[in-house]
Structures are given as structure tokens and as C-alpha cells.
Amino acid sequence: MLSIHDTNALIRQRRSTFPAQYTGEKVDDAIIWQMLENANWAPTHGKTEPWRFVVLTNEKLPAFGDFQAEAYKQNTPVESFDEAKFEKLRQNPRKASHIIAIYMKRQESGKIPEIEEIEAVACAVQNMYLTATAYNVGAFWSTGGATYLPEGKTFLGLAENEKLLGFFYVGVIGKPSPDGVRKPIQEKVRW
Ligand SMILES: Cc1cc2nc3c(=O)[nH]c(=O)nc-3n(C[C@H](O)[C@H](O)[C@H](O)COP(=O)(O)O)c2cc1C
Fold this sequence. Notes:
Blueprint: H1 4-13, H2 29-39, E1 51-57, H3 60-74, H4 83-95, E2 98-105, H5 114-134, E3 137-142, H6 150-156, E4 162-172
Antiparallel strand pairs: 1-2, 2-4, 3-4
Helix pairs in contact: 2-5, 3-4
């Protein structure tokens, strides 16, 4: 059996680590595969296994940065366009080692409600987060950029019944995140 001590530590030490904190070095592809393998063990109602991923690395990272910055520009009225945001969208992917695009593939029958398929994918993402923590690799789930733009689906070649849910940035940690803070669980539970 796993020790509860180690389990608690893994869960509570998990932190989001952002591109500005990465060294720019590469994370071993074998670690990325471990993260994906563990994602595959998420719970799934009706055993639909709706999680799907596209791994972007090497020359795909600047291409993705340019794409999402341009998508932001095209979808933003000139008067609210923010040059700093445009540049951040362009540069952030260049700082990552890998970016794992996360999407949900709906079962053909649509029997399982969509929200449950999204919930299953979120569980898969948490498995990736925890695996990254165990390897002391930086990661965070981004729902920014082109996540909810039709261009995002086109860029990744997603079908009609597939829903883009964001991007999991991965990088070697240069500057660790501070310890996490949560309000007491007692405030969120009625017993
Ligand atoms: C569904 C989801 C979407 C998120 N999207 C973003 C995002 O777009 N940008 C961002 O900076 N952080 C995003 N995050 C990460 C949160 O900022 C992070 O989880 C939060 O600050 C708590 O920090 P921790 O993960 O270290 O506990 C997202 C997290 C989740 C669960």
C-alpha cells in the first residue's frame, strides 16, 4: 500500500508553475509519456475514456505561440487590443518544454452527459499534475489563448464532437512556486 503520508504530500505539494518560472530546458519525453499514461487511468463514467491530447514540442512551440497571438489579435476589437498580452501569448509557448493540448472526445451515442465527460478529462489532467509533481517538473493548466476560439480547434484538427479544454504547459522548474494556500475545508462542507 502507498503511505498516506506520501499521498498527502504529493497532493498538497502540487503547484501550478508558469512559463516565466521555467529554465527553458527540455523535460525528458519519457516523463511526458508517464504523465499521459497516468492521465489514462482517470475515472470514467461508462468507460468512455473521453480524454484526448496533442503534444506540442520543439518547432511546434513557436508556431503555436504565433498562432495563438494572431488568433487573439483577430478576435479582439482594436480599441481593447493589448500589445503586452499579444506578446505574452507569443512568447509563453517558447518558454515551455512541451505543451499538451487537452480535449474531450464525446462518445458517439452521447449517452453520458457532456459535463461528465468534461469532468473525466479534468480528473485526467489532475493525474498529469500529480505526476509532474512527483518528477518535480513544472506544469500548469491554461484555459487562455485560443481555448474557446474556433481557430483553436482548427489548429489542432479537432472534429465537431470534440471540445478543446485548454493547454497543459510543462517545463523544467527554475523558480519554484510558493507553498499553496487554501481556506479551511470545514467552510466548504456541511456534515
Ligand atoms: C480548469 C483550470 C483552468 C485554469 N486556467 C488557467 C489560466 O488560464 N491561466 C492561469 O494562469 N492559470 C490557470 N489555471 C491554474 C490556476 O491559476 C491555479 O490552479 C491556481 O492559481 C491555484 O494554484 P495551484 O494550482 O498551484 O494550487 C487553471 C486551473 C484550472 C483548474
